[in-house]
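User: Can you fold this complex?
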Amino acid sequence: MNEEIARRLGEIEETRDFFVVGKKVARVDALDAVLGRPVYTADLITGRPLYVRAVRSTYPHALIKSIDFSKALETPSIKAVYTHRDIPGVNDAGSLIPDRPLLAYDKVRHIGEALALVVGEDLERVEEAVDQVAVDYDPLPVVSSPGEAMRPGAPRVQDRDNVVTHFKIRKGDVEKGFKQSHLVLERTYRTQHIDGLPLEIEVAYAFWSHDSILTCISTMQNPFDVYNKVAQILGIPKEKLRIIQAATGGGFGPKSDETPIDVSAYACLATLKTGRPAVSAFTREEAMTVQCKRHPFEITHRVGVTRDGRLMAWKSTLIEDTGAYVSKGHLVIGRATFHCTGPYEVPNIWADGYCVLTNNTMAGSTRGFGAPQSHFAAEMMMDELAAELGLSPAEIRRRNVLRVGSLTATSQKVDDPGLEICFQKALELTDFERRYGELKAQSGWPIRRGIGLALLYHGNTLGPEGDDFATVTTRVERDGSITVQTGLTEFGTGAITSLILVTAETFGISPSRIRLERPDTLAIPNSGPTVASRTTAIGGRAALDAALKIRQVIANVASEILGCRAEDLTFHQSKIYPKGQPSKYVSWEEAVAECYRLGLDLKATGYYIAPPTKWDPETGQGSPYNQYTYGALVTEVEVDMETGVVRVDRMTAVYDVGRAINPLGLVSTYESGSIMGLGYALLEHIIHENGRLLNPNLHTYIIPTSVDAPSRIESIMVESPGPMGVFGAKAMGEIPVVLPAASIANAVANATGVFIRQLPLRPDRVLTAISQS
Amino acid sequence: MMHTHPEAPIIAGGVYTIASMIEKKIRPHHLIDISKIRELKQLEIGPEIVRAGALASHTALMETFAVSPAFSAFSQRYTSPSIANIATVGGSMALKSSTEDLITILLVHDAFIRVRTTEGLSELPLDQYLNMDIRHALVEEVRFLNPTTVSAMFEKIALGISYIPLISAAARLDRDGRGGWICRIATSHQRGEIPGRIHEAETIIQQQGPGDEAINNAAKAVESTIDPVSDLMAPSWYRKRVAAVLVKRLLLKLRDGEWP
Amino acid sequence: MKQIRLNVNGSSYEVEVNDNERLVDVLRDKLGFKGVKEGCGVGDCGLCIVLVNGRPVNSCLVLAARLDGEDILTVEGLGSAENLHPLQRSYIEVGASQCGYCIPAALLVTHSLLSKNKRPSADEMRRHMRSVLCRCGSYLRFEEAVKVVVGDE
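Assistant: Here's the predicted assembly.
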């Protein structure tokens, strides 16, 4: 960026009097949604495509001896059955790690693993034909937990050790720290499989376009992951493939993971081989079986603390069940381990995080990415330590919370007061300390109330997980309207609206004049994955870059018209004028028209890549993230002591958003994560038994309904700008889902006197705990 | 039709049937639409007895008997109004399942069910029907005490959109006009996954009256005599324990006059 | 096959249906009302809800042939871009739509509630909205939107 643009950026960043940033603005896609416009993949299918359905394994672990599909082919409308032999390119559909075949060839490693595809003209006949494909399995012993997987001589899930990652933190000297402690507590916490469960099920629609490009429209978070992988599977040059993301009904992680690759590959394979349009769609049961899950964790903490509550030593073992394939497991364990001591300063840490293969269904990218699990364990541990010491949960945190100048678990220095501010605010707004004390002494029956506190820090954004870059392509049209296109996707977060706001702010025009084009691999360069809550922070930088480049061109032309220097110009409310002289203006439209007349190009691709992060894999020490989001959540609950039913009454969520680009959008994000986190805490459980998934449906897998939502969620935004995100913005999309489980479990402990160390806190579990105490 | 298709099992009403078709549990060769048989839609309300045709909707019952605490709770604790608009009385009865709150509620309203088989018409008490293995029976009508003339309540513990009960209970407590008490108690899981009345508990209240000790003993009797299934939603012991809690709470509310 | 007449969004449609064709399929595929979504096919999610004679019904659980002559409202009949229904406007204003997938069903369920009860309590709103799953967690936004609409009157 040249000096000119850097100065402009500085000016915009310094002023708090934003034109559109920070103001209440409607989402760009809200109108489509309330009108029910046909913008999702299934709405766009026309004509009579072929249907593609997968034949899926009925064993969690078995050798494949043979696949006989002769009966399936007897029906005339069935056009083909494909197995791994029919894959022209590479039989690999792993999103990051190439360990997962698209179609199983020698063995199946989890229930529901795909091993053949049936293609036909009639969906009902295709479904019947799927049942007619006869697979001869040779069952193998099932590894149903990490405990079993880690035993010596355990059956191998893949052709390698079942422990695929070992993440370490070695800071100071834990044994010395324990010796300096007055109290040492050891506790084990357990979390469950859940499904991110986007409500729009996987579906892909593939066809040859008139110019001989294999086009696939589908529902996804990462178009370029799908693009790169499908091209490789089909064995076709990338120029012959085009992936378009249609409106996507929810992401939450699964739509950024393996199943979007699968469903697009199924449809594209059929279209490639038959020349005809093809649709592949999962059923809800199928999606819930094979969609990636949130990693269940078993976390054991051994923590030493002084009499007055200062943390001296923290030893952790984190064991994560990644299922049959790694997906993002090797990264989730990293985030979980980095954050495993909670947002506190601990001088001596020894942590081991293990990612373990089992024959359970695959776990992968799910909102929070290891942080919810990690904070559940760390925040309960803090409350348990406080209880033993006779301190309040607020007091023990006050002694240890990360402040400016503190060192994190990786010895990274904190330079931001965000956590302290959020912590203080949360305590004040909820009168926490007084109420906690009151409720601890309550004697009501059968309903008891509880209040619980939890704090977080969350490294932004991809950090050590990959190249943290984004691109945004912006074009100012002849009539002054603006088109923005990026490979970053919208699927509910509202973050794309932030990119529009940043663009509108830079040009000084109304966001309503900006049109967003669909992510289309034919039209734009790779923008990186839409994950890790990086769209606003990182994508925003790219959007700003593109807009500033174009603004420079327009400013030069306007300066000629107005007879002043380009660097003196202000862009505001569709007018361009020298600072302080609003009457001496040229309109946005006039300036743009003049640019066109001069044959100037008003199109730019903005780019941003976050500085690479550095840390030592042997000790986990270094600076793995460029900035941190901070936060505090206080939850108030009611527990029926005779039935074990927990009801969340009120949540007070205080998060340091860095800079609120789109406050209205942030309220939705706060509530979204809070309610999803509530489900994780109280209701949701994907149940495996010997590798079989018992509840792949919505009547026995329970997600929150309207009556489960708290009566009130207070969404408090603190702004402590970070060094990396656009205008100081911090990652927020995932943040509100991280703390509810911790906060609710602590509130239940306040109400019942019992720490329940396993999720979900379903009525029977709560009642058992109450009865045993 | 039953005569021409003797092998055809009767499948309960539309909601369950279509859902089962989607889940591939059943592939019916013929679906016989009985929805237009007007007689089956009737809801005949007498001063003491109500007759509900098999096709009377759940919504119709909820709206008609909104003043009854039991039916008001039925409505409050219902899975969703959209299902209530198409679910039917006959459909619920035919399912013989703990998922059907209506069965649990009608059990305490002394319901009788009229079914038609190839042998002809049969009329039997609801709890007897629940425990009998009757094939090829079409529910025609259920008759029960007018809910506005009795004191009955219903409560349920359930989770999620389907609001399938972990456990639910209904109770009725009335004076018998001779200084004694009429008590009916039913739970969603009396045996396995089938609702039923708990006669032991009813007898305790009818013999001793609804004093605190009798109510506690009745609750204990519920806990010790029911034999609910353990499944994904809850273990058996939880259902037993909480059934007792719910029954105790219902009886106390009925006794002390705590209703809207 | 059977010829039936459906009154959808105020217009009459003649359509040929099989005995076992569900209302959701007829509305989406034969009549082009893509605003009706399908999320599970078994009545567990509520995304397919339409109003039949003013009442919310899971269109994946009803056979089209049974609704010959009935009045059906889908989200497309609630309002248009030029003429938004007050609820649609308030949904936009309060940020109720996130991924958008449940919005047609949420709007229709809310509309049917407000048609019967102009000032529903929070409890009533929640109970009605329990028909529809929203994974994005917009439940409080839906309540807020109703407050805006009710406040305006």
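Chain C has a mean pLDDT of 94. The beta strands of chain C are 2-8, 11-17, 49-52, 55-58, 71-73.
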